[in-house]
Write a structure and sequence with these properties.
Radius of gyration: 24 Å
Distance between the termini: 30 Å
Structural class: alpha/beta
Strand content: 15-25%
Largest sheet: 9 strands, mixed
Amino acid sequence: MVWLGTGCHPAEKGLPRIAIAGLGIESSTFSPALTDEAAFHAKYGSDVYSNYPFFAADSPLRHRAVWIPTIVGHALPGGAVTREAYESLVGKTLDSLKKYGPYDGLYFDIHGAMSVVGLDDPEGDFIKRIRQVVGKSTIISTSMDLHGNVSMALAENTDLITDYRLAPHEDAMQTKQRAVEDLLGRIESGKGKPAYKAWIPIPVLLPGEKTSTRIEPARHVFGAIAPTLGQEGIIDGGIWVGYPWADEPRNHAVVMVTGDDKEKVMGAAEQLARSFWDARKGYAFVATTKPWDECLDSALVSHQHPFFISDMGDNPTAGGAGDVTWTLNQLLSRREFKPANGPSLIYASIPGPDLVRKAVAAGVGGHVDGYAGATVDARYSPPAHIVGTVESIVSGDQDAVVEVVVRVGSLHIIVTQKRKPYHKEIDFTRLGLAPRKTDIVVVKIGYLEPELYAMRADWIMALTPGGVDQGIEHLPYKRIPRPMFPFDKEMKDPDLSARLVPSSDAQ
């Protein structure tokens, strides 16, 4: 590991020493997939800075502390993390923290929805183990995805906490910077840890596609966070929707607020919690949602192009395995796409390493005959038999590794060596595809990310099967607390009074 700490430099005398660490992933316990260590693409030491534009070498923020980056890893959402991978990454983080301490502060960059085989609440476990190394006096500031889970263990062991306020997460980097500036502000001012932390569990569990801030009621519920928390005596906080595709007791919505004014901290937390709860019956899908056949039929008769369809059930950006073939097999069976001059359709995407190897061997313009998908999650449909012409071959993507486009009739099927979500225009154009000039674009995704959303002429979200099935009310939960909305629609109003969380000094 390379560390660029320069504690002996005269200009750094008196500056606070702040570590950087974190692991982030959304992982579905309803998917058979497993996530290994390599999937986190962990960065070590000075390489960690590249994750954060605000840590650029010439940024003012970079010069306000002696930064000690340890390990930060972010994995594409997927199945539960293997215990071996988790212990390895956590162990390396703790070893690094032991080596370079002591610390005035620590920036903890996590997602909050990691599931680990055989372990409840990985983020709570991780921060407790960090505390055992850095001690009680170190101030920890945590940034999270609003689809993460804030357990009591996490709440107790962090001092400052904040999360995204937009879904899609266009404010991700601003949130991370805010968490760092919150930490610096408390250290530089000498105020230290907040006097109060308020935490409120809310018995609501909904998918992000129903709580997007693009539409009401989430737009006004989350839009009220900044003004509500922008009071003297309050530091930060937020509303966490929680992650619906994991079956653990911590999976539910939460509000948490930190600050020095007890009444304001508790009052703000209760105001935000009540607002989220009161809006629960108004949350709805961010776009028109229909069964697959109805979605495709609508796209085929539409004059609005490109017409996007979200193949939601196997969305790899939410934790799906990414290799469910159900939708692709439906497309391959449709007569409309058999002729080359049929409606043009891009399908993004399906992993098929064997087919990719055959396509590379055949070369662009060559014929390929093979199978893709359903090696991880074959519960809904067998591997897709793809027979067609290789249109392009591109290597070098961090996630996909190698991508090929195979034309079958009027279908342009993206086949990857490893799974990859497609959410930017360049993801398509670098493969020689022209999504803006294509009749129908099918993507394994939920709500469209900003670039695709801006590109769409029309859009429907399809209720398809997979490890992140949007029909969460029929998923086999056994461990989430009940009653819980929407599973218990007529439940009584819960106790939404603020719980004061013990200081990390008491842990």
